Amino acid sequence: MHTSSVRALRADLATAVRRAEAGEATVVTVHGRPVAAIGPLSGSAAGTVTSSSGTPTIDQLVAAGAVLAPPRHRRWRPGDGISVWSGTRIDQALRELRG
C-alpha cells in the first residue's frame, strides 16, 4: 500500500491509477491524516459484465454507482461558424458579434 498527499497525488495522478490497475492501493492524506483510498475496482464496483477487453464499461460503472454519469446526454456539436472579413481586428468582430 502506498501513501500520498493530496498535493503529490494531484501532481502525479497517472502513477496512482497505474498502481491501482496493478492491484495496489494508494491512501490519500490531508495534513498527514488518511482521508481516502484509490485502488483497484472490486468485482461489485466493476459490475458482473465487462467489455470484450475484460474492463468494465462506463455504463456499468455508472450503474454500479462507482462513477457519476456525465451531465450531457447528447453528442457535442460545434456551433455555427461566423464569417469574418480578412484584416478585421478580433476585438471589433467580437464587439459586433456580442452586440
CATH architecture of the domain at 2-64: 3-Layer(aba) Sandwich
Q: Give the biggest sheet.
A: 3 strands, mixed
Q: Helix/strand-derived class?
A: alpha+beta
Radius of gyration, Cα only, in angstroms? 22 Å
**Order of strands in the sheet with most strands:** 1-2-3
Q: CATH-wise, what's the superfamily of the domain at 2-64?
A: YefM-like domain
Low-confidence sequence ranges: none
Mean pLDDT: 82
Tally of DSSP β-strands: 3
Strand content: 15-25%
Please give the CATH class of the domain at 2-64. Answer: Alpha Beta
The CATH topology name of the domain at 2-64 reads: YefM-like fold
Task: Give the termini separation.
Answer: 58 Å
Shape: elongated
Description:
It is a single chain. The protein has 99 residues and is of the alpha+beta class. The chain has a domain at 2-64: 3-Layer(aba) Sandwich (YefM-like fold). It is built from 5 helices and 3 strands. The protein has helices at residues 6-11, 13-21, 43-46, 58-64, 90-98; strands spanning 2-5, 26-30, 33-38. The protein has a 3-stranded mixed beta sheet. A hairpin with a 2-residue loop joins strand 2 (26-30) and strand 3. The longest helix is centred in the N-terminal third of the chain and has 9 residues, at 13-21. The protein is elongated, with a radius of gyration of 22 Å. The termini are far apart.
